[in-house]
Predict the structure.
Amino acid sequence: MEDRRLILHIDMNSYFASVEQACDPFLRGKPVAVGGGISKRTVVATASYEARARGVKTAMSTWEALRICPDLIVIEGDMAKYLHTTREILKIFYRYTDLVEEFSIDEAFLDVTGTAERFGGVLQLCRRIKDEIKKRFGLTCSIGIAPNKLVAKVASGLQKPDGLVLVEKENIPLLLKNLPAKELCGIGKRTDEILKRMGIRTCGQLASYPVQNLIERFGLVQGVRLSNMGKGKDDSPVDPQKNRSNARSISHSYTLPKNETSFSAVKSYLLQLCEQVGRRARKQGYKGCTVSLYVRYGDFSGYCRQKKLKNYVDNGFEIYEKALKLINPLCISPLARGRCPEQTCPERSRGRRGTEGVRMIGVSLSGFIKGIDQISLIEHRENTKKALAAMDKINDRFGEFKITRASILHNKLGQKCGMRDV
Amino acid sequence: MWFINDGRKYLVREINYEWVKKNGASKVHHFAVSDGANTFELSFDDLELTWKIED
C-alpha cells in the first residue's frame, strides 16, 4: 500500500511574518520578526526571509536580533489572526481530499492517493493549492510529495520558499543517503546524540546499521522504527482523527516582565495562570487530578514538580492552592540568598541557585476525566460551582476575564487576557 | 468606503487582509486596510454592530 500512496506535506513559508506582510504592504520586502514585541525578554517566533538573510533566526532573543539587524521591524504576534488563516487554508485542503492531518499551525499532511487524478495529477493538484493560497491570502507554501509522510516532510524542506518537490519511491535511498539523521521528523537532539556515539550521522548509515544493534540500544519498537526511518519507510496513515484528539493536559505559562523576587507578586501571577487553566478545563468539560508547576529562575535554572490530588478539580482557585504547595518561597526572596541552609532548601541542595528571582512560571492540569459532574453534599462547594458557572457565562458573553478575582486585576497578564478565545 | 480618524477622512482603497476573532459572544471582523499611503486596522463587532479603529 505504501508504494502507491501520494502523500503531501504542506509547509507555510515564514508563516506569521508572511501573514503580517500580507496585512501591511509597507512591510513587504523588509526584514520582519514576529514575537512577543519589543522587549529584552521576548524571542523571535518567526522571521521573514528578508530578516533570515540578515542572520535573524527563530528562537533568537529580540535584543540579539536587533543587534545583528538594526532595521528589523519587530511585531507582536496575533495568534487569533494566524489561527483564523490556518482554518481558512484547511478549508482549501479539504476541497482536494478528506484525508487532512493538521501537523501544526502551519503544516499539514494530505493523502491525495484517491483524488489526485480528478485534478489532473498530483503536480497539477499541488499547483492549484499553491495558487489558491497565494491568490486568497498572498502567502506561499512549500509542498513535498512522496509515498509516505516521513519523506514528504523531508521533501518540503528541500525547496523554500514556494517549493514543489516530488520524490519517487526509487529515489528515496539517494535522497536520504547523506541526509543528517537529525533532519528526520521523530529524531530529536537526544536520539541524535546517541546515534552519533554509535557512529551514525546520516540516514544512509542508519539504514545500513544492523537492526539488531539498534534494538539492543533502543528497544524493539524504537529500534525497528529507527531502522525503517533510515530507509525512508513509514507506513503511518494520514489521520484526520488526530485533529480531534482529546487533550492530555492543559497548561499556561508566562515569562514575567521582570525577574520577580516578591513572593506575593509570584503568587498573583500563579493565581491568574491557574484561573486560565481552570477556565479552559471547564470549557472543554474536563476535571483533572494532577497539578504540575514549572518555575524558571533568572539564572535559567528551575524545576518542575507535580502533585496528584485525591479528587478531580476544574476550579482555578483549587488548582492554585495545590500549585502553591509546590513552590518554595525561600528560593524567590533575595533575603534567602546565602542564608538558605541546604537541608531545608531542596533546590539549593540539588545545585540550583535560584538567586535571581523568578523569570517564568507555568502550571498544568492533567489526569483528566470528562463529563462527570457529581453534586457535592458540602453546601459551600455547590455554591462555588454555581459562582464559577455564573462567571463563565458572563465571560462567554462579554469576553475573557471580564469578570475575575480582584487580586489579579492589576496583573499585566490579566490585562493581556492571556487565554485565547477563537 | 471611508472613515474619519483624528479629524481626517481616509478613503479605503485596498483591503489587504481580513480575519475573525471571538470576543465573548461577539464575532469581531478585522480588516487590514490602506488608503494608498497609510495602513489601518478596522474592526466590526457583529453583536454590538459597531466599527472601531484598532491601535
